[in-house]
Amino acid sequence: MEEAKKAAGYKAVDDHVRSGMVVGLGTGSTAYYAVERVGQKLKSGELKDLVCIPTSEKTKKQALDLGIPLCTLNEKSKLDVAIDGADAVDPKLCLIKGGGGALLREKMVEVVSDKFVVIVDSSKLCKGLGPSFPLPVEITPFCHLHTMNVVASLAEVEGCKPVLRTGDCSNNKPDGEEPAVTDNGNYIVDLHFSKEIADATKAAQAIKKIVGVVDHGIFEGMAYQCIVAFPDGSCRVAGKGGEEPWWG
Ligand SMILES: O=C(CO)[C@H](O)[C@H](O)COP(=O)(O)O
């Protein structure tokens, strides 16, 4: 799927990034290629006067290595476009994000972007959120087991199995003894579902209300469009400026 990820990342930059823009740079193995493309175009002079806001320390490092000018939301609180991957995309372009552990900064940046362009390979498309990828929830370290249990006991996420992320925060495979720590100093609980979340909107609202929860990986009503890349490198666009989502 590497070629597909690259195709989606490059297309998003080619279609949506223009000189003078403020651009949000996502996190993950697909967003990596969008950042790479921005770097290429700045170097060649095709893009000028760009300033970018990275959504993680990892992306910040990649961007700095490529010489991409950066700022923060403190300096620019309105973005022209943000480009980022996703872990699951349903036919309403409702997303699960946070597999790479960067959900809070991603949501903060993407919610203030005029256009949030999602880039995925076709394996991320799903009929309904839940079974294809666990839902990450960022929680404060203070009494984290308590918060984890409160989240898992919500009726809106009934049947889920909560797993505290350990080891490397940028993947949700249990790979360490210690809790994984986000760029913000928090922990992540991954909620595993064996069937679709009955109502993702209600689940999102209920989770967000819990004291001790920082944010969750449901990104609803945020995506402008989704660029879907296929194993042969071809792309289809769903959402505004594209087709009706064809999956589901
Ligand atoms: O939400 C994210 C990071 O927090 C990523 O965008 C998401 O996990 C997709 O990553 P990848 O493109 O590597 O599959």
From TrEMBL:
Keywords: Isomerase. One of its GO terms (molecular function) is ribose-5-phosphate isomerase activity. One of its GO terms (biological process) is pentose-phosphate shunt, non-oxidative branch. It catalyses: aldehydo-D-ribose 5-phosphate = D-ribulose 5-phosphate. InterPro entries: NagB/RpiA_transferase-like, Ribose-5P_isomerase, Ribose5P_isomerase_typA_subgr, Ribose5P_isomerase_type_A. HAMAP family: Rib_5P_isom_A. This is ribose-5-phosphate isomerase. The lineage of its organism: Eukaryota, Cryptophyceae, Pyrenomonadales, Geminigeraceae, Guillardia.
